Amino acid sequence: MVKQRIFFGIIMAASATLLCWLDSVLIWRTGSGEQVQGFIWAFIAEAMMLSAVNEFSKLVKGKGARVFPLASYIGASLFCLSYFLKQFGFAFEISQAYLHLIIMFAAVLSAVLLSFIAQGRAKTNEGTILNCGATVFTVMYWGFFSSFFLAIRVEHSISALILFVAVVKMCDVGAYTFGKIFGHTKFAPLVSPKKTWEGMVGGCIFSAVTGVLFSVIFSVMLWWQGAIFGIIFAFAGQLGDLAESMLKRDAGIKDSGDKLPGFGGVLDIVDSLVFTAPFAYLFFNIVG
């Protein structure tokens, strides 16, 4: 299992590096001076989000609820791509902020209205609150939260996005390593029995070092800000992982899927990233 995880982890890291490079050079500049960027990451974020929605829908189904496919896919997609699509405001001769507002409104409206329409087609009132609630929650959590990947990419830089992803995922590496070697004090035994405080400390150390190195290499922020960023998002990422663990335990499953050998499903990979993305975007806005 460990060798398999390392092997596929290296493949995913190498693939992500190549895609980030492609994303950094694939920029469309219009004759009027406007530019649109983030094409590759828009595809990555959308594919990741749709896979997460699909896995989460199956998880919810085990609890007797139903996530309506059309409502969840359309609503979540509009949310997820909103920061990318707003760059096309020039095509409609409106500001990016205004187009972004329109897209966000359309996302909410489609999620709610299509949920009620889908429930109405079932010709029964039973499960209306449960099904519509599950659908809207799915759209907000996996769609709205995922939108901040592209928010960081479009409004800051590909370097900022790489820093964020590296910090959060290196926490997983540090937590796993320290937990295996030193771990004995349980962190959240009812939710995730294998997590330990020693692992948490290791994750914070790995993330802090990663934050410093990537901040210096990419000049995203000052080195000490990178260290603070690393510690904050190491802890926040673990909370995101625990949040998904709570959902999985309620559904009575260990992994959200089996698409990624050694890791489980897409949710098991992106849970900490999706949970922390909005706060990372806020952090980047604060430090400028």
TrEMBL record:
<keyword id="KW-1003">Cell membrane</keyword>
<keyword id="KW-0808">Transferase</keyword>
<dbReference type="GO" id="GO:0005886">
    <property type="term" value="C:plasma membrane"/>
</dbReference>
<protein>
    <recommendedName>
        <fullName>Phosphatidate cytidylyltransferase</fullName>
        <ecNumber>2.7.7.41</ecNumber>
    </recommendedName>
</protein>
<keyword id="KW-0443">Lipid metabolism</keyword>
<dbReference type="GO" id="GO:0004605">
    <property type="term" value="F:phosphatidate cytidylyltransferase activity"/>
</dbReference>
<feature type="transmembrane region" description="Helical">
    <location>
        <begin position="263"/>
        <end position="284"/>
    </location>
</feature>
<feature type="transmembrane region" description="Helical">
    <location>
        <begin position="39"/>
        <end position="56"/>
    </location>
</feature>
<feature type="transmembrane region" description="Helical">
    <location>
        <begin position="97"/>
        <end position="117"/>
    </location>
</feature>
<keyword id="KW-0594">Phospholipid biosynthesis</keyword>
<keyword id="KW-0472">Membrane</keyword>
<dbReference type="Pfam" id="PF01148">
    <property type="entry name" value="CTP_transf_1"/>
</dbReference>
<keyword id="KW-0812">Transmembrane</keyword>
<keyword id="KW-1208">Phospholipid metabolism</keyword>
<keyword id="KW-0444">Lipid biosynthesis</keyword>
<keyword id="KW-1133">Transmembrane helix</keyword>
<comment type="pathway">
    <text>Lipid metabolism.</text>
</comment>
<dbReference type="GO" id="GO:0016024">
    <property type="term" value="P:CDP-diacylglycerol biosynthetic process"/>
</dbReference>
<comment type="similarity">
    <text>Belongs to the CDS family.</text>
</comment>
<feature type="transmembrane region" description="Helical">
    <location>
        <begin position="129"/>
        <end position="152"/>
    </location>
</feature>
<feature type="transmembrane region" description="Helical">
    <location>
        <begin position="158"/>
        <end position="178"/>
    </location>
</feature>
<comment type="pathway">
    <text>Phospholipid metabolism; CDP-diacylglycerol biosynthesis; CDP-diacylglycerol from sn-glycerol 3-phosphate: step 3/3.</text>
</comment>
<feature type="transmembrane region" description="Helical">
    <location>
        <begin position="7"/>
        <end position="27"/>
    </location>
</feature>
<keyword id="KW-0548">Nucleotidyltransferase</keyword>
<feature type="transmembrane region" description="Helical">
    <location>
        <begin position="199"/>
        <end position="217"/>
    </location>
</feature>
<feature type="transmembrane region" description="Helical">
    <location>
        <begin position="68"/>
        <end position="85"/>
    </location>
</feature>
